[in-house]
Each structure stands twice: as structure tokens, then as C-alpha cells.
Amino acid sequence: MWRRLRSALRSLRGSPAAPPHGGGGRPPAAMERAVVRCVPSEPKLSLRFVLPDGSARHMQRDQAEPLGRALARIATNAAKGYGKAGKKSKKARAEGGAEGEAAVPAVPAVRLFSRDGAAVAEEVPNAAAWQDGAVLHIGDARYRVERNPPVLTELRLPRSLLAGFPVCPKVSAEFAAPQHCLFRWFREQRPAGGGEAAGEAWVETAAAERVFTPSNALVGLRLKLRCTPGDGEQRYGPALEVESSSPVEAGPGACTFDARHLYTKKVCGHGSVRAVSYNILADTYAQTEFSRTVLYPYCAPYALEIDYRQNLLKKELAGYSADLICLQEVDKSVFVDSLAPALDAFGLEGLFKIKEKQHEGLATFYRRDKFSLLSQHDIAFSEALVSEPLHKELCEQLAKYPLVQEKVLQRSSVLQVSVLQSTTDPSRKLCVANTHLYWHPKGGNIRLIQIAVAMSHIQHVACDLYPRIPVIFCGDFNSTPSSGAYSFISSGGIAEDHEDWVSNGEEERCSMSLSHPFKLLSACGEPAYTNYVGGFHGCLDYIFIDRNALEVEQVIPLPSHEEITTHQALPSVSHPSDHIALICDLKWK
After folding, report:
1. Is the distance from CB of 19 to CB of 182 less than 8 angstroms?
2. DSSP secondary structure letters along 13-67
């Protein structure tokens, strides 16, 4: 990060840290910059400036150290710099035959003055002394102190760019926020004959937003982004540029979610909540030989590539204008480098819970201007079952069935629970749960245990910690509407003689009676399928809601069977996952 800042310091000597399009009320152009980075959690602060001889100085000083010691060190450094300059000058005169000796440079006077012009006392600690707007005097040179100026630490474009699909850069900054940064997009110049001025490698587009959607006219051309970090207080740091590694490619045409976007053009009002649940197919599973040859042999290989699928996913999710998005099978790298930056640009904050034994997990996103995060209560089922007193009775019952117990404890399934509060009505809180249950067709008994743990944990959060707050429980439950897990969730109980207790044969029979206190309803009903692959289709995904507190305003229709089977099954060139997103608008009763 500081290497970038050092080069910026050299290029910006004497220039103001003002917005690139004017304004900002910054220091006069003649004044140099002294850049201070001071973070309370770190013991030292850093100071960077460029001496009149052009040499850059970078100092690390204890934050608690008296200012006088730091100024003395600056004076010593400055004297060395002047001394070197003097030696060069003497050598040049000797080679040119000039007479006279160069004067030995004296140690320059070094003082720090506050913004109002008063000298800062030398006993003041560094952390308090080096304030934004202060002026550092080194001999005759003057430096305007910029404390914690905005700086970009990372700027990255996606590897794959499709016409008609949003390009969402990853922007990481210190002392800045992406929403306050300035963005300028450029396109590559077409070869000679295109009618544009010769010699211009890049042509600026009209776009000045964080997210840029290239048109078909840009197919075959690379993109460049110039980003200037800002902090929302009219302070701007040095700009960075990044060029795309590949040109814009043609998009796939119509996608399965295009018609659904007609229902979700706008964010719903503050009295309503649009929820989405979606298993997005982890790259760690899509890129196996088994997936390519057995599970999805009908899918074009390039359409299984994560870069291609991410283009579709980002457009699909952004177009739903959701307030809550619960995702399953989210690769950690996909969350960090792709989804979180992209959805952040559309006003959504993301939370991630990884499965410890896998590289994928759960992600929950919530709209920032509608909700704030009060607390998180994520668990791994196996760990919680044996370590939390809450599940002691269930754990003792399970111990009677060692074969089943072993399988339950081997699973890495997790539960993500987030408590959100309305930004406009603090009395309105939500307990949002997200999970992905064990997948095996004969694992109904395992899923029942996992759901029992989940419901007890949700009860603890939504009844004990936050009494009587509504629950929204989303996920890929790997359970059809005829399953024990679905029956347990929706009815509030499961009998000990339910057939799912012997889902893997008599040797793994596990009979127990379970119950929970919630009245939960599948908000999107029981669709014919939410998962459609070559060898299977069925309803596995649900958005369960607290029917005592919430009601359904509308369910966004699923794609038609014709759309789903256009390319035989899912995923396809027009659909990024083997599952289908569930979307509904809810409102408080």
C-alpha cells in the first residue's frame, strides 16, 4: 500500500489533495505534502515527505513519543539530505573548474504549527501533534500535514467481461469508502480506421459510476478504470488505474432471470422486505471431472467456469433489488473478491460463514439503508451439538444411536443466524437464518437432527436473547415437501415413528420425538422444483417465515419450464446454477 503512496507522493509534490475535477478548498499549490498515517490500534505512526533535494523520507515513530524527538530526527534527516546535495554540488564545481568550497549545511530549524498558526509544543505526543491541516517547517520549506488521507489498497477488475452485464470492480481503501470514490471508465481505442484521433490509446466513456455495464459496441475492446479515493469530506487521495486483462465478450442473450427482473425493478417500501434464497453452485463442485462428465454433461464447459457464471450471478442478484439475500455454496474467494464488492455497490452488506472442512459456505446480505446488524449467532451443527448446554438433551438421545451420531458429527454443515434491526423503526427486528443441510438422498435422519439443532438455536436467539422477534429461515434444505425435515419445520413436530428415522435402513434407525415452538410457513409454497439437473428435479429450497408476524405480499414467479429446459437442464449458458432462486416480498402483520 505505502509503495503506491510513495510513488504518488513523488508525482504529487506540491499539488493539492483535491478532487480531480476542481473544488475542495485545499492548500495552495506551492506547499508540499507531509502524509501521516496514524491508527489508534497501532503503536507507531508513519510520516512521509519529500525533501527539497527530491529525496523521499519515510519515518516510523511511537505515537506516545514527544513531538520534539520526532522533529529532531527530521532535522537530522534533512541535514543528511542537504549534505549529500552539497557534496554533489562541490563535485560538479570541481569537475567544471570552479573555485571555492561548498558551505557545510547547518541543521535546519524544524517546527510544527497547528492549523491556526500556533506552534505545537514539543512535549505533545506525536499522536496528538500531527493533525490534519498542520504545517511542518523544515528550514524554508513548508509542508501541509495530511493525516490519514484516503488511499486505495486494491483496485481490481473481473477477469471476464460480458456485454450487457455489470462490471463491478473490487475496491479496497484505507481512510476512504467506495461510495465516496470517483470513478472514470475508459475503453480501448479501436484499430486505425475507426474514425478516432490517432495516438489515443484510451477513450473516456460517459460513465462515472462505480458499476459499468458495457454495451455491445464495446465487444472486442478492453476497459480501463481510474479510481480516485475519497472520504466523503472533500478529501481525495492519489488515483489508481487498472486495465482489464481481457476484452469485452458478447453476452449469452436472454437469461432465465430476465422476466423475473420485470417484477423487481424497484426496491420495495420500508414496510416490506424482499427476501431471496439461492444455492449458487460452488465452483469447488462445478469444476470437478465428475460434474463435467456425469452431473452436467449437457452444459458447455465455458458456462461452468466461475468467471462466466459470476457475470450472470451478479446481474441476476442485482436485478432482484432485494433487502435480504441468503446464499448457499458460496466459495470464500467468490464472496471476498466478487459478490461482496459487487453487491456492496448495490447497497448490500455481506456476512459470510464458511464450512470448516470445505472452501465454501453461507452468505447473508442485507440492504444497508433498511437494516443494521445487531448481532451474529453462527454455529456449526456438529460442534454446537456436543458443546452447547442448549442441546444437551438431544445429544444424550443421539448417543443411543452411535452409527447415526458418528455421521452427524462428521458433517460440516453450518447455520448462519443474523439479527437485524430496521433503520426506520427500531422496534422492528428480524432473526434471519440461513443453512444448507446434508445432501445425501438417504440422509433424512441426519437432516432431522440438523434441523433440531437449528430450531433450538434459533429459538434461543429469537425467544431468549431477543424475545418474540420474527424469524425468516432460508436455505437449501435438501428436503422435498414430503420429507420429515419439511414436515418438522412447518408443523412444529416430528413423530418418533416417521419413516425418515430409518431413511438409511434399520441399522441406522434413530427414533425420537422432536418439537419446536414456531409457526413457520413456506413463503413461496411448494414449487415443482427448485433444483433441475439431468438426473433429478425437485423442490429442495425454501424461505420459511414466522406466520404470526409476517405475511406474503407477492411471490416472484419462477422461470417457465420451457426456459429452464432450453439447454436441457441447469446450469446452462443462460443460468449460473443448478438451483433456482426463490424470491418473495414480505410485510409485517
Report:
1. yes
2. TT-----TTS-S----TTSEEEEEE--TTSSEEEEEEE-TTS-EEEEEEETTSBH
CA dist 292 and 300 (Å) reads 9
Percent of the chain's residues with pLDDT above 70:
89
CB atoms inside a 10 Å sphere around CB 89 = 13
DSSP state of 424: S
Task: State the Cα–Cα distance between residues 490 and 418, nearest whole angstrom.
Answer: 21
Cell output for 477: 434444505
Question: What digits encode the pLDDT tens for the residues 210-252?
Answer: 999 999 999 999 999 999 999 999 999 999 999 999 999 999 9
- Select from 374, 375, 348 the least CA-distant residue to 363: 348
Residue type, 166: P
Domains in the chain (CATH in brackets) are 32-77+108-147 (3.10.20), 151-191+200-243 (2.60.40.2700), 256-588 (3.60.10.10)
**5, 151, 2, 147: which is closest to 63 by C-alpha?**
147
Q: Coil, helix or strand for 421?
A: strand
Q: Is the pLDDT of residue 25 over 50?
A: no
Q: Is 476 one of the catalytic residues?
A: yes
Distances (CA, A) of 412 to 257, 376, 447: 31, 19, 12
Peptide bond into 158 cis (omega under 30): no
489 and 546 Cβ atoms separated by less than 8 Å:
no
- Report whether 138 contacts 110 (CB < 8 A): yes
On whether the CB atoms of residues 538 and 486 are closer than 8 A, the answer is no
Q: What is the pTM of this model?
A: 0.88
Tell me the C-alpha distance between 99 and 102, whole Å. 10
CB atoms within 10 A of CB 467: 7
Q: For residues 188 and 176, what is the distance between their CA atoms, to the nearest angstrom?
A: 29
Annotated catalytic residue: which of 231, 378, 476, 500?
476
Q: 59 and 30 in contact (C-beta within 8 Å)?
A: no
Q: Which residue has the cell 470445505?
A: 358
Q: Which long-range contacts (CB under 8 A, 24 or more apart) does 302-309 make?
A: 303/571, 303/572, 303/573, 304/571, 305/160, 306/331, 306/334, 307/158, 307/159, 307/160, 308/160, 308/162, 309/281, 309/283, 309/571, 309/576, 309/577
Percent of the chain predicted with pLDDT > 90: 84
Separation between Cα atoms, residue 446 and residue 274, nearest integer Å: 31
Q: Provide the H-helix boundaries in 262-401.
A: 283-286, 289-290, 301-304, 306-319, 332-334, 340-345, 381-387, 392-398
Cα separation, 576 vs 315, in Å, equals 11
- Cell 427448485, located at residue: 530
